[in-house]
Structures are given as C-alpha cells and as structure tokens.
C-alpha cells in the first residue's frame, strides 16, 4: 500500500508542478470554457504558437489536457472537469487567507491602502513558496 501511495504522490507532484505557471493556469481556465486550438490559445494568451504548444505538451504529459484530433488540426480540452474545481478550491483558500490578512491589518490599525499593500506582499510571498 505504501508503494501505491508513493506512486500517487509522485503523480500528484508531477501534475501540480505542471500547473506552477500562470500561463498554464490561464490555459486550463480558457479550456474550461470550451476546447480551443493552439493558435486561438496563443492569441488569447499573447504568446507565440511555439510557446503555447510547449505549455500544452507539458500539460498533456501530466494528464491535465487532452488533444482532440480533427484531421490535421488539434484542439485541446481539459482532461477532467474536476481539475477546474480543484483550481477554484485553491483560489477560494487564497481569497480567504488574503481576507484574514486584511482583517488582521485593519485590526492592527493599518489604513485600507496599507492593508491592500500588505495583502499584495503576502500574495507575492505565497507565490514564491
């Protein structure tokens, strides 16, 4: 059983590592709306087609997206809708954390603009962790 858990943990680590990019998170959210081709995604993201393809390849290998073949063209879609739910859950956790930090700053006597600045610092620090 320990081996199975280790395997699952490795897969989870790989999947989460593949999401550790704001471009890949944006791709996931865009594909959550509907399947899209590489060129459309590249335009939406203001990235080159090659860079977008590299992101999609990494996401496909991690099991986050899958390709739909339409002749010589490919469109991509989210591999499992629960991935979007997991991202929404993480975003909710972050919003609650930032809200608590703002409440703490306000209780300590910080002005509202200082509380916003503090929340941005906390968000920036959390992103680096």
Task: Describe what you observe in this structure.
Strands 1-3-2 form a three-stranded antiparallel β-sheet. 72% of the residues lie in helices and 11% in strands. The two termini are 30 Å apart. The protein is globular and about 60 Å long. It is mostly helical and 129 residues long. It has helices at 2-18, 22-33, 38-45, 49-61, 82-107, 112-128, and strands at residues 36-37, 65-70, 73-78. The chain folds into two domains: 2-80, Winged helix-like DNA-binding domain superfamily/Winged helix DNA-binding domain (Arc Repressor Mutant, subunit A, Orthogonal Bundle); 83-128.
Shape: globular
Q: Tell me the strand order in the biggest sheet.
A: 1-3-2
The name of the CATH superfamily of the largest domain reads Winged helix-like DNA-binding domain superfamily/Winged helix DNA-binding domain
**Low-pLDDT segments:** none
- Total number of domains: 2
The overall pLDDT average reads 86
Beta-strand portion reads: 5-15%
* Separate helix tally: 6
**Level of helix content?**
over 70%
CATH class of the largest domain: Mainly Alpha
Judged by helices, strands and strand pairing, the structural class is mainly alpha
Provide the succession of SSEs.
Answer: HHEHHEEHH
Radius of gyration: 18 Å
Annotated CATH topology of the largest domain: Arc Repressor Mutant, subunit A
Largest pleated sheet: 3 strands, antiparallel
Tell me the distance between the termini.
30 Å
Count of DSSP strands = 3
| Second rung of CATH, namely the architecture of the largest domain | Orthogonal Bundle
């Amino acid at each position: 059983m320990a081996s199975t858990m280790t395997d699952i943990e490795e897969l989870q680590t790989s999947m989460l590592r593949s999401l550790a990019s704001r471009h890949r998170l944006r791709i996931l959210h865009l594909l959550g709306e509907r399947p899209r081709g590489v060129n459309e995604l590249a335009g939406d993201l203001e990235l080159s087609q090659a860079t977008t393809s590299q992101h999609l390849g990494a996401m496909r290998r991690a099991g986050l997206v899958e390709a739909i073949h339409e002749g010589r063209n490919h469109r991509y879609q989210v591999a499992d809708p629960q991935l979007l739910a997991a991202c929404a859950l993480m975003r909710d956790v972050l919003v609650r954390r930032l809200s608590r930090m703002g409440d703490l700053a306000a209780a300590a006597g910080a002005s509202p603009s200082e509380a916003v600045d503090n929340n941005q610092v906390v968000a920036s620090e959390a992103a680096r962790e």
